[in-house]
User: Fold these one by one.
Assistant:
Number 1:
Amino acid sequence: MEETDGAGAVVLGGDVSDCENIVISVTAIGHVAVGAALTRSGASAGDTVGICGRSGMAAAGLRVLQRGLRSPRVLVDAFRVPNIDYSAGARAAKSGATSMIDISDGLVADLQHIARDSGVCIEVNTQKIAVPDELVSTAAAFGVDPMEWILAGGDDHAIVATFPPKKTMPKGFTALGKVGSAPVGTVLINGVAYADAYEQVPGFRHFSS
């Protein structure tokens, strides 16, 4: 309930987590001028891909809890009580972002939405991704490549947006790659298609168990 204060919201109800049939619920909050909405379909080849927030922390925190552990605390908190930058989307829009999405389903999974809807490919350079020490040490202890959590973990409430190459990204955003022209609908990791580089499913898949 305290979290709603920062977002200027109130809790009026909630959805059930499981039922026999598919239920589609839609909530409309506010309005936007025609043609002014920032969607997934506006990215163009040459755009810079930027992220606000960290990826992989929540997935690592979940694995820590599944092992019956409670630390590193920063990872557990990323899963249980995430620190959300509610103004990130507005800053991106004001800075001229061409497309945007949150990465709660997983970084690669959600970048694929932009790639498919925009008719482009997304090229991620993992050398541009800052990997916290806690993530590195926990991955080593669990025998996991930390990039698997970063690229496909999910449950991170971060924002990814694309920006024209000559635009300066807003405060809080860091570059992690660029937009290419082909192969359309694909996310490349250091020049290789994600599916060819990693065995792990690239994030949460809706309507699949």
Number 2:
Amino acid sequence: MVPEAPQDEPPLDREVTDPSERLAVRAGWQLVDAYERLSVAGARRVFGREVDAWRRYTDDTLARLTTAEGRASVHETENTQLRFRRVMDFARPGDRVFDVGFGQGFLAAQLVKRCEIASYHGIDIDDRYLAGSKELFADNGLTDASITLEIGDLYDLTRESVASRGADLVICCEVLEHVPDAELALRTLADALPDGSDLIFSVPLIGRLEGVWGHVSVFGVARLKQMLEGAGLYAHHVEPLSNVWALLVASRDPGPSQRVRAATHRPPARVEVPLTRSFDFLDVKAGDYAVRPDDAGVVSMTPSDDVTVTVRATASGGVMFPVPGLEALRLALVLTEVDGLEQIAIIARAGRKQTCRWDWSADEFPTGHLAVKVRPGEADGRFASSEHKNVDRTDQVELVMTVRDGGSAVISVAASALP
């Protein structure tokens, strides 16, 4: 008898057998999740250079189709062109493609014209696209190509109907978000996959395209994994695409995917730029500290060694030291006398303007050694960060103690800044 897993353990993902492919899929899921937990603008700040590299690859390798005047549409945007390019990257010469949701025929034309596929059969529930698609094929010299289109419903697909077309690649991009039951739709697609065939599908990332009225549901990593499991599918490839979609390659076979292994992709152009202007922390010398000008009567300071000063305050006040910009700051504090201490503030300034501030307030401060690390907009568990602006221009940091009336405080300070 196999023992039941403890109820508090998370369910195991349904994964492929090849270790390298498995790890790549896990990384893909994590990237999709990261995109979706960021806003569109936030993801652009983090991943924008990578997306731009994929768009350059698309511009360099995908020729635009000839279209009748006035027909250029959303299918000609850089996002959609990149989606076409990535689907084409997974197509192989000789493929027989079955496309669920052929739309205006742009992907069909690109696949037939550029990928040397053997045949293309597309279905769509909307008969308004038939005439325009055929016109597009004619404009691009594909009148005699092996392309067939018909009106059909995803939910009516069977393995026999798909296999009758000899399909070894089934595509269903930008469809599942439109249908009333996406789980049933994916199960139908999975059940209709002929043996040895692959499924490529895409859905919008959460937070993207949600203003499109025809999109009736959103997905996300957790739901997509459940949908794949419920459909009996294995993910062989997962990627966020153009900060708009999640693109997946799946099949009913857990073995290694030759399609994924043979897929083309963008050149290995390096897109990363340094996160910081400097890579080395600079210790503040004891001789660089000074009592703030307005605090000379209530704050005194004595060097303890080359990089440490001891600060004594009989009223609120503090010390300051210069920095050549500020990416991060760490402090080694020794709190010796804290009976009168109410708050410690770290204030970064550019000239007279505050660029950031971190505050630590407590009813009772602990004595002893304390290591502090702060970054603009981040807290270290004690110091809370305020809003920050132009922190790279910071030229001075202040350490300020708020002392109650009649009280006093003694703190030793050593500082090290990452410019």
Number 3:
Amino acid sequence: DGDVAIMMVEAEATEKTIQLVKDGAEAPTEEIVAAGLEAAKPFIKTLCKAQSDLASKAAKPEGDFPVFLDYQDDVLDALAKAVTPELKQALTIAGKQERETELDRVKEIAAEKLLPEFEGREKEISAAYRALTKKLVRERVIKDKVRIDGR
């Protein structure tokens, strides 16, 4: 039908609007705002068509972009085998200071266990530790419906 549907309206006023209304200026009613939106529809339709035309002429094809992680799977797998139980336990501590202290201790254990096997890859171990921590926090929130702070 060619009608332009407006799904969301973001209204913003200038800094002086509140003062103008306080000084007696009439605030816009819902009817005035609705009339303004109706008046804007032909212009919005024109802009949407122009954007669509431009995209069809200038858009680049979608493609897959490689993801370069800060760690390799072998480090993540070894880390998961080495410290997952301790890390899960540390993430159940509700107090932030206590939890952070325990997470630091678990990270040190991870480094001690993995450094001999992954010498020179300390940054990968650290990045994999962050990724594993994030994964376990997410799992806990989704499966157990408990946030990291215990709520």
Number 4:
Amino acid sequence: VNRIAMWSGPRNISTALMRSFENRPDCVVSDEPFYSHYLHKTGIDHPMRDEVIESGNTDWDSIAIELTGPIPKGKLIWYQKHMAQHNLPGCDLGWVQKLTNCILIRHPKDVMLSYLEKYEIDSEDQLGYNQQLDLFKLLTDLDIPLLVIDAADILINPGVMLRLICEKLGIPFFEEMLSWPAGIRANDGIWGKHWYGSVEVSTGFQPYIQKSGNLQPEYQDMYYACLESYKELYSHRIQRGIEL
């Protein structure tokens, strides 16, 4: 394993997991390298849209070439935090065959309640479940192994799950993965000012707490569509997690 692609959706523990891997002595990380491309192509008006686009590369093919190229800073492992919803229709995903792919899932009720605290939801495509399932099917059809990881499993028992993830990836586990210094990182995307408030003050994984509250009726159809994709992926998770 040299390059790990961790495919998450929004409002997951993706940034905390990036912190965990970044704290390894043998690892360099990248934070959502396709975000600028995604905003540039879709026209979606995310917070800090212009700054995000200006801060990154908007050319899909050149980003993919870079992500499959030499590992930066002389490290052994390149951990790439990706958002599945950034995989837009028509974008070539052939390059992912050169990486070890993981899909990080979280129950859609928790995701949607958290997302709505930060931004509006107009389409299930914003949440990444369809794109995660598409990626799962693409790799499975090619007989390329991948890991499906449920966020709740990590939060319930970080030590056990991180050891399991490392074992499945064929890399050593480091105790440093369980805690990290608070604060921002040079590798954080510029959008962290809007999205990363909780992880910036964190020093480790927070205990699992299911989100309280209920989704408004207008989100029910979207929720059940996401839930269907989530359940299929959840059935392939590497350790038993919360019951549906």
